Amino acid sequence: MKQSLFESRHQPQWQAFAEQLKQLEQGKRKAGDMADFPHQYRRLCQHLALAQERGYSSYLVDPLQQLALRGHQQLYRHRSRLTANILSFVLADFPRLVREQWRFVLIAGLLFFGSLVVVALLVYLFPELVYSIVSPQQVAEMQGMYDPEASRLGRLADRAASEDWMMFGYYVMHNIGIAFQTFAAGLLFGLGSVFFLIYNGLIIGAISGHLTEIGYGQTFWSFVIGHGAFELTAIALAGAAGLQLGWALIAPGRLTRAESLRLAARKSMQMLCGVMLLLLIAAFIEAYWSSSTTTAAWIKYLVGAVLWLLVAAYLTLTGRTRHAPE
Amino acid sequence: MQSAPLDTRYQIETPEGIDLPLRPAGLLPRALAFAFDLGVRGLAMGILLVPLALLGNIGIGLGSLLLFLVSWWYMVLFEVLNQGSSPGKQVMGLRVVQDDGTPIGWSASLIRNLLRFVDMLPFGYFFGAVSCLQHPHFKRLGDLAAGTLVIYRQQPAARPKIPQAAPLGLPFTLELNEQRAILGFAERQGELSAERVHELASILAMPLQVPAARAAEQLNGVARGLLGPT
């Protein structure tokens, strides 16, 4: 068949298909109402194959190719697990994933909490050490924040709701940003994650050791214990996700490095979604519960301990049964 | 299907058994797209932060949420919800797709945009640029991990007029690529100078058995013959 005959015979079909594509792309019509779309798409593919095989002009083949590509984009899609089943992710998949990657979680946890505890003890025993880790300016700022005298004065009047709001926004931005950094830096063969885990551990450890040593322990610990359960766990998990990326590059096994990285990235992304969830909860607690001054310190310690147990139980026990609630 | 060795085209085969060529975009258009996005983000933050600053503490809270959204989610939201194009990519005519040509999803988009942080290390997109320049399909590190590809969105080209000539059949059969070459010659004549047309056509004067001066006309006739009824 000659090109012009082929073209004039099928042109209306191609135009109709292009029209359908446009509506789908602009989201005006749902894919469900277009029952004949796959049929039309396959017919177009057949026409394209014929046109190529018969050596028709590229001014005919190229537009057909573009139509086929657009059709392909509409017909074939990756099912997105994130939006599809958030519930089963929260109730089973996330803790399962954490347990499955227990090696990385363990290493990240040891790096982060290990450096935190060691430095906190060191600073407690040798107080001047704090100035070699944290700048004097930041130390003064922290002291101001947790000074028992000043905070009693400042917080006697109940904190306005607007201030809680401000802190919530700040915590979300700041903490999730840190978690993202800790994760992404893992691409540098895991070294970046190791660095950020230890670095954050050092800073937090130094400040907590210092504040305890100068006698601000009560205000500090009662403030941080509640949200710390979620926040510190989340940072360790973000580091574990980053280490996983790095390890995929160091020891890809039987896969190529690129392939192994792709698979690891998909897994660690799921872990990171859980981390975001934990950090959102942490920011919420930090802004609305940890900062309240009307509750006694012992209640805060109690609630904090319960929250730590809750997080630990969630990560170790949830989703153990084969058919988890879905 | 044959592919030229010096071509950056990236072929994907669909389940229907046809090959679709994608054209990956290189460093420069992508850098320009990113610069545009950076400008848009800066502008949006500037405009939104002024009224928020007047709101006091709530404003600061909303402002930092906004800053978080804009710095980490701007690209992801646009790529997933807007056919794989952030505004900058839209302006440069680019889009992001998965390696197999399907639209980008939440998880792939998140991976490639979070790992942008590493691409920016140690300064000014150094790792990203190196990775992009050495990869056959111009992928930066985030693209490698997410399995994505930045391609040109193609606009159909306007169809040129083929010069008038009497349709003509040839006494021998043409191979497919010869047929494509003759059609290509006829279609592109408008972009070439008369001398170049003459020079190209005269290569074929011998097999067509016509004098070199008439070769171009003869080829146009053959092209007409290939397109429509003889």
From TrEMBL, chain A:
InterPro entries per UniProt: SpoIIM-like
Keywords linked to the UniProt accession: Membrane, Transmembrane, Transmembrane helix
Membrane-spanning parts: 104-126, 168-189, 232-250, 271-291, 297-317
Record Pfam families: SpoIIM (PF01944)
The name this protein goes by in its record: Stage II sporulation protein M
Organism: Pseudomonas poae
